[in-house]
């Protein structure tokens, strides 16, 4: 009986070709979404973020699409490249998935340097052939444990 249960659960972990393709599409979208933020690509973010986005910032406050995009595309802001640690890409059915990771975001805001360590979770939903971010949650983390650049 235990052997049968173990084989059953192991078989659930094997991706079908369609599931593998969906996971690859989700990863590609998550990569492009992260890149659009760092590049401050407002046009890409407008397409990639759902109009009904729920964005929970590092302080726990809830905002929407405009606030999220404005936060990444300020004219006096500039971001350094990021390295994602402990990244998880998880398809949740055929039309939903999430990406989560830890990173240090740094750069300059209004000419002043900043550096913040965060863990984020982005939830994406497929609309036809495209994905959109529908829910984003950011948690601030202590900098003293962060790796130095």
Would you give an account of this structure?
- By secondary structure, the protein is α+β, with helices and mostly antiparallel strands.
- 32% of the residues lie in helices and 42% in strands.
- Strands 1, 2, 3, 4, 5, 6 and 7 form a 7-stranded mixed sheet that branches.
- Strand 5 and strand 6 (112-127) form a beta hairpin.
- The protein is globular and about 55 Å long.
Query: Cα distance, first to last residue?
Result: 52 Å
CATH architecture: Roll
Query: What's the total count of β strands?
Result: 7
In this structure, how is the largest beta sheet organized?
A: 7 strands, mixed
CATH domain class: Alpha Beta
What order do the SSEs take from the amino end to the carboxyl end, as H and E?
A: HHHEEHEEEEE
| Number of helical regions | 4
Supply the number of structural domains.
1
Write the layout of secondary structure elements.
Blueprint: H1 2-12, H2 17-38, H3 42-48, E1 49-56, E2 62-63, H4 65-72, E3 77-79, E4 85-91, E5 96-109, E6 112-127, E7 130-141
Parallel strand pairs: 1-7
Antiparallel strand pairs: 1-2, 3-5, 4-5, 5-6, 6-7
